[in-house]
Amino acid sequence: MPVLGCVCLRPGLRVDDSWGPRVLWCVVSRCRSEPEGHVPPTTLPALPGVSLPHRLFYRYQDLAPQLVPLSYTSRPDVKVPYELIGSMPELKDNPFRQRIARVFSDDGDGHMTLDNFLDMFSVMSEMAPRDLKAYYAFKIYDFNDDGYICVWDLGQTVTKLTRGELSAEEVSLVCEKVLDEADGDHDGRLSLEDFQNVILRAPDFLSTFHIRI
Amino acid sequence: MSRQLKSLGEEAGSGVRQQARSGSPGTGDRSGRRPSKKRAPRAEGAAGRHGAQPGQKERVGGSPGPGSPRRKQAERRRHREELGERGRSSAERTCTERRKKDGRTSFKEQRAPSKREKEVPRKEETWKQLKKHRSPSLASSASGGESLSEEELARILEQVEDKKKLIATMRNKPWPMAKKLTELREAQEFVEKYEGALGKGKGKRLYAYRMLMAKKWVKFKRDFDNFKTQCIPWEMKIKDIESHFGSSVASYFIFLRWMYGVNLVLFGLIFGLVIIPEVLMGVPYGSIPRKTVPRAEEEKAMDFSVLWDFEGYIKYSALFYGYYNNQRTIGWLRYRLPMAYFMVGVSVFGYSLIIVIRSMASNTQGSTSEGENANFTFSFKMFTSWDYLIGNSETADNKCASITTSFKESIVDEQESNKEENIHLTRFLRVLANFLIICCLCGSGYLIYFVVKRSQEFSKMQNVSWYERNEVEIVMSLLGMFCPPLFETIAALENYHPRIGLKWQLGRIFALFLGNLYTFLLALMDDVHLKLSNEEKIKNITHWTLFNYYNSTGWNESVPRPPLHPADVPRGSCWETAVGIEFMRLTVSDMLVTYITILLGDFLRACFVRFMNYCWCWDLEAGFPSYAEFDISGNVLGLIFNQGMIWMGSFYAPGLVGINVLRLLTSMYFQCWAVMSSNVPHERVFKASRSNNFYMGLLLLVLFLSLLPVAYTIMSLPPSFDCGPFSGKNRMYDVIQETIENDFPTFLGKIFAFLANPGLIIPAILLMFLAIYYLNSVSKSLSRANAQLRKKIQALREVEKSHKSGKGRPTAGDSEDTEKHSSKDATQLQLTKEGTMPHSASQSQTADQKAQDPGVSSSASRPTLPASRHLPVSRPPGVRPDSGQSQPLTHPWRSASGKSASRPPR
């Protein structure tokens, strides 16, 4: 079995380490067409030059080795449960981990297929465009999935951020202020448009909305 | 056959490409022409399937609205026919070309109209249009049928462009991965079929290599940045403190760290250029009187109590001014030590001034750029304060704490701005508080004056007690300890916002400290003048001692007398060293007082409160003693005044900076520990003002104030006659004159003399004033313009808001179903299906090219990355600059004929 990584990618692709769907697609298709990909997953990701999608795949596989097959040739319908996703070191301290998992999973229950997993880290990557990040950030902060960030969502966000250390009045004051600042059309809730308007001005949104893996 | 066809087609393509490269510079033109390369062979297959159909009749029935099923059907049919027609024409063309193949030289020649017109004039025209379909003259000259096929071609090209754009912007779409994959595959197949390999031939490898290098470079830069942040000392400690105590307490530690950096540089300067050369190359200890402990002090010179007062051996060491010899050059390097000493003394001040002013300037720059974001304080805190990179639970705890703190800070700010109060009462209280504080300041000033007067009397007396000797220092320390809390108590009357209150407090304590400092300086100055007046007398004594020693009778005249032992030579009091010792003592005692205050006032109190709370009759933690808060203003001012001492003293005691570096280092660790272990956050947590320019301003003031006495002593007091690098000179700055005269060529000396002419200096100063005035007015007008622009932006935003709220409802409904695409995307999807379907037969031909396509397309479509994004929501007007550009692309069918000119270049 030849070493995966650089070798298995086509020449034009090796340079593209950008988590873009092209690479992801290539890798996924490659993994799917791999006849017997039995490489010890622990050794591979440590190799220098192993591309990010590969590392992601092995991270995914590592989460539930008994569930996820090494070969994706037959497109198995595998989901890693939320408990395992949420216990990844990259996510376990994040107050929004449940939201993240739900937003990226297929049916909102937090269980992820490989595609969802790749999706999540491609959006959270450094290279992902600002608009895309803003869109998903909106979905993450939209706790009740109604397409708007309403006062209740804001309250949830503050509570999660401060671990409930602010009093109820303070929370409501903060929510009020946020609505006051960001609600462009004065309908008492933030639409995606409002949200983008705010978030695209934020100086450190791009640097903080980012998970390194 | 098919292979031949293909090679033909490829040659044709390469010919076209070559021509495009050499001839027309327009990129859009080139891309438009390129598809022809692949189209011929593939379209033949399509032609075989669909047969030849006249393409004209489709145009008759008026195109239905976009997106309607009827229109889609029509489009599909038209599409098929277009393919068929093109396939037919290309089939014929390839036949003729094959006939000609033997004698063919190059495709360009074939294309020459003179040859081709004879054989197949009509085909030739089609072919030309295929390449130059955009030029209006050709379009007009062509017959109706061909203009239609030209339109179809343009349409195909549009589609290809759209697909390529889709591939390029795929990353920007919020689709799930599976959908992205299918979309991408479809798009790629489409592009492959119509356009063939997008590769750039030989350049591909180089391109790939360059991309690789660019990636590596970006990664390296990122790693290097990470490394740089890791190299910042105490970053984690300060972050830790910030998360628990808020940014104002952290700002003190950041200031302390900055100060440490500055002092390290000063330390390097002084040690590297003055102390180490002297120690390595100067005459050793004990060789000359100034480097020897006098006979009278020799017994006690090693006692700790003497050393602690910086007397004895320490006084006659390289730490102080008096140790340095006035030899012009020392060692085999012929190092000009007196000159170096003087220049280092000047450059210490120069460097400090520059660094303080530079950091002030950078702070103001940072604060102006942040001014615009004041509108979204809470929103930014809410949505961007969590750092998703955090993967450590302790850091996460800290981050949560700091977010909570920052929310509280903002809430305090907000409440403060909204507060409505009895203005008269507040005013009265503020006036009262200021009155009280002025009384305090006057009282303390008088007390110091009184004590200094008394100490001058004591100094004349013999056998004074320890208290009487140190009365001034004790009184000053006590004042410094008790006045700030008193001020704080009085300031509670004023009821300012904590941040403004902190500034007032700082200003008051600054006044107090300044009074103390200048009283101290005046006393010192008196001392210096006293010593200077005695100097002449001592000089005579020394002279006569030596004279008598060498000329005394009773010694064998033939043998030269051994020189007098340096310890026995009578010498002057060396006021410079005395001043240096005073500053050294003050610094050390200041440090000790600080540490003891922390230990007693904070740590012991915290221990007492913590452990006695179990057996006490009231709640100690919540009640009276409680834990101490961190005293920001006192600490900052202590630091600033300490730095002032260092600046003043470093000229007369080069070792002072070294001691200060140690002091800052220890106090960093000690105070970090003390703050985390025994202090509680302020009751009203508040954010530090955006830039710590206030601290910097105070520091600059202190720097200026400490520059004054040093400059005075250098310029107008004569140096001691028997100690220090400038001994024997009339003034200290004479060393420069001496160097210029002896070491530089004469014309340089003349130039310097000319430059020092008052006739030149006064105009230069005037010019500077004018420049300052001009720059000041310019910056004022700029800031005014800035404010106006900001106001304009604000107004625009208001207009935008009202505009949006007017028509906001329909767009809001649109974004409810986020998975659904806007009509734009739906159209594209449609195009994809139509584009791929008729070509399933010819897929085998392109299979080999598909292999290299993804990489190729990535390289080819890279420049289009920042093109329009396809988020399925409506955008606020004017936010996307390229929304206007992508508009014509969304309706390729409607504007096909007129579009060739307006199509954006890829």
TrEMBL record, chain A:
Against InterPro entries, the record matches this protein to: CIBP, EF-hand-dom_pair, EF_Hand_1_Ca_BS, EF_hand_dom
Q: Keywords for this entry?
A: Calcium, Magnesium, Metal-binding, Repeat
Q: Pfam families this protein is in?
A: EF-hand_7
A GO term (biological process) for this protein? calcium ion homeostasis
Q: Which CDD domains match?
A: EFh (cd00051)
The segment(s) forming the EF-hand domain are 170-205
Q: Name one GO molecular function term.
A: calcium ion binding
Q: What is this protein called?
A: Calcium and integrin binding family member 3
Q: Which species expresses this protein natively?
A: Suricata suricatta
**Corresponding gene?**
CIB3
From TrEMBL, chain B:
Q: One GO molecular function term?
A: mechanosensitive monoatomic ion channel activity
Localization per record: Membrane
- Extract the ranges annotated as region (Disordered): 1-150, 797-906
Its predominant location is: membrane
Q: Which InterPro entries match?
A: TMC, TMC_dom
Task: Locate the compositionally biased regions of type Basic residues.
Answer: 69-79
> What Pfam families does its record include?
TMC (PF07810)
Q: Where is the composition biased (Low complexity)?
A: 137-147
Per UniProt, what is the name of the gene that codes for the protein in this document?
A: TMC2
Q: How does it sit in the membrane?
A: Multi-pass membrane protein
Q: Name one GO cellular component term.
A: plasma membrane
Claim: Transmembrane helix is one of the keywords in the record = yes
Look up the domain of life of the source. Answer: Eukaryota
Q: What is the lineage of its organism?
A: Eukaryota, Metazoa, Chordata, Craniata, Vertebrata
Instruction: Please provide the Gene Ontology terms (biological process) for this protein.
Output: detection of mechanical stimulus involved in sensory perception of sound; vestibular reflex
Q: Where is the composition biased (Basic and acidic residues)?
A: 80-128
Question: According to its UniProt record, which protein family does this protein belong to?
Answer: Belongs to the TMC family.
The answer, when asked if Cell cycle is one of the entry's keywords, is: no
Q: What is this protein called?
A: Transmembrane channel-like protein
Species this chain originates from: Suricata suricatta (Meerkat)
Where does this protein have compositionally biased stretches of type Polar residues? 825-862
Q: What keywords sit in the KW lines? A: Membrane, Transmembrane, Transmembrane helix
Location of the TMC domain:
574-689
Which segments cross the bilayer? Answer: 258-276, 339-357, 431-452, 472-493, 505-525, 651-673, 694-715, 751-775
